[in-house]
Amino acid sequence: MKRILIVLFAFSLSGCALFDAYFMAKYDTTEYALVNEIKTKAQIAEENCGNHLLVVTQVNELYIKSLEFKNFTMHIPRNKDANNMSTKLLTLTKDTRDYFNKAEKISPIFCKTKLQQVINSADTIQHVLGSKPR
Amino acid sequence: MTPELLNSYIIEYNKALEQGQISKEEYVELLKGINIMEGIADDAEGLALKEQLNVIINAAISAASLMA
Questions:
Q1: What is the tally of helices (H) and strands (E) in chain A?
Q2: Is the pLDDT of residue A25 over 90?
Q3: Domain boundaries, chain A
Q4: Are B58 and A133 a contacting pair at CB < 8 A?
Q5: What distance in Å separates the CA atoms of residue A117 and residue B24, rounded to the nearest whole number?
Q6: B10 touching chain A per CB within 8 A
Q7: Is residue B22 a contact partner of residue A107, using CB atoms and an 8 Å limit?
Q8: Which of A86, A104, A124, B57 has its Cα between 20 and 30 A from that of B42?
Q9: Interchain CB contact of B8 with A (< 8 Å)
Q10: Amino acid A15: pLDDT
Q11: CB neighbours of B4 closer than 8 A, spacing ≥ 6?
């Protein structure tokens, strides 16, 4: 039933949407590896929430990796969706970095929850990038 | 991101604020984060739909070329 609905939806779409879907950017190993690295780095940083100095360093690295991810997705043709997501992930990691750098004291719950936001977002992106056509 | 999930995050943050586990500034920062997460989830949904369409189009092309 779900498949029929998708097919009906596909036929009701404009030619432009079909063109976009057919010629979309294919799966890219580097793109996938970069978002995987961001997620892993955030998971490691979350484990170190008790050590302020260490977590600040790791959050800075997280921002640099996100910038690299955004820059990588930028000029790949028909890759607007991945670029939009990488830009938003960069904003999330930049906000995190800025807050962690300016705050004198960070509560452990905030540290874990904020890094969870980065982990969840990176996981969402990783899931769709991994499902791109080969 | 489903409204239920969004709601559960907000309840969790409200609880942490009420219990004094996080400061007001941290609470605001977390809400800002939710907003970005929601945007990422929306973009991911759009891309997932395109991926499904891509599979369908390719299957239709394969079927058509088999019949030809």
A1: 6, 0
A2: no
A3: 25-130
A4: yes
A5: 18
A6: no
A7: yes
A8: B57
A9: no
A10: 72
A11: none
